[in-house]
Amino acid sequence: MTPEYGIKLAVHLISTDFGDHAAKVCDCLLRKGTLALDDIVRTTKLSPQQVKTYLKVLIQHNCVQAFAMEHEGGCGEGPVVVTQYMLLFDNILHRMRFPKLLAIVSEELDKECEELFEAFLKHGWLTLQQILDRVPSNQNDGNCTVQDALRGSFTKLVNAHYVERCPAPDPFLVPPDEEKTPARKHDANSAKAVEELEIGEQCDIAKATPSKAKGFPVITDTCSDINGDKSIDNPPGVVIGKKRKQDALKLDTESGATSEKDVPWRANYKELVCHLRHKACIENVRARMDSGAAIVLSAMLEATQSAEKNVKEEISVPLSINTITEAVMQSEAGHSMTLERIRASLVQLGCHPNGVGADETYNIGTILCLFLIQFISS
């Protein structure tokens, strides 16, 4: 359950960026939970058209997730499918971190990627066509060159997982078992029920979010490819990029897009916030312990990042001592570290071995919990 100060902060952020009516919708969903359109209209006292408008705005900016769910009809009618709207509280708070997220892209990639990523933060969902439309009309002479540069920057962002495909506009979710679904109570005795409800809502968000296989496909046709230029490396009659398009066609159909350019993309907050979290942990370890412990922690976090399911992961997957050693020595700073020094750093980090010999593994647990509170407060 979102605390009162959290509600006030989220409403303030939405009010500042999108106005009072959007803030009313935000406040309603925060206090009442996931609701259908009619319920939001009834609670906010806004007109249906106003509510629809601001829901679209909040969806566009990754603050609300819509999904369809089947419900029993009344008066003997058959089941009906109702679209419901769920507020993404964490995504609203991430709006305060936009400068930090932009700094990550600036440090890891280049200026062009930073400018393109800033457009994702500013506009929310963007299609490739909208990205290409950023080319000024007075640059016709070098239009293909500029478009190819934009495609290159876009590809870098996708490969780094800093942007991802948007979920379907309103994915269909299987309704929960009513006997297992806790009632929406807010008294002190229903804390467990509320926690279970929030877990259920997180599951709904996960179901609506594309998997990694679907979230990061990218087709990198150049402007000349689109104009029909062919390559001697491809079979006769095959335009460059066509084979890749065939692989992505099914994904485009699922999202309602008619072509690659119509597929919407968005900033991948999860990846970026994990990056911030890791950076905060590493710098804290460097300040409180030493550079050796920071190097080992950095290597372990990088090796386990792909297995993290959420930004509040409390314990990492286990890594063998050989994997840790290899990860450390792959970094320039870790070239001088011996196995004994790596083991000593693991002890500093509170990572105790599980098993011996070939079965010797370590995971990061307490160190992440220790610095998580400090990261969230920043």
From TrEMBL:
InterPro entries in alphabetical order: RNA_pol_III_RPC82-rel_HTH, RNA_pol_III_Rpc82_C, RPC3, WH-like_DNA-bd_sf
Main location: nucleus
Sample GO molecular function, one term: single-stranded DNA binding
Pfam families assigned: HTH_9 (PF08221), RNA_pol_Rpc82 (PF05645)
Location of the protein in the cell: Nucleus
Keywords annotated in UniProt: DNA-directed RNA polymerase, Nucleus, Transcription
Domain RNA polymerase III Rpc82 C -terminal: residue ranges: 153-339
Single GO cellular component term: RNA polymerase III complex
Domain RNA polymerase III subunit RPC82-related helix-turn-helix as annotated: residue spans: 8-68
A biological process term (GO) from this entry: DNA-templated transcription
Function: DNA-dependent RNA polymerase catalyzes the transcription of DNA into RNA using the four ribonucleoside triphosphates as substrates. Specific core component of RNA polymerase III which synthesizes small RNAs, such as 5S rRNA and tRNAs.
Binding partners and assembly: Component of the RNA polymerase III (Pol III) complex consisting of 17 subunits.
Stated family: Belongs to the eukaryotic RPC3/POLR3C RNA polymerase subunit family.
Name of this protein: DNA-directed RNA polymerase III subunit RPC3
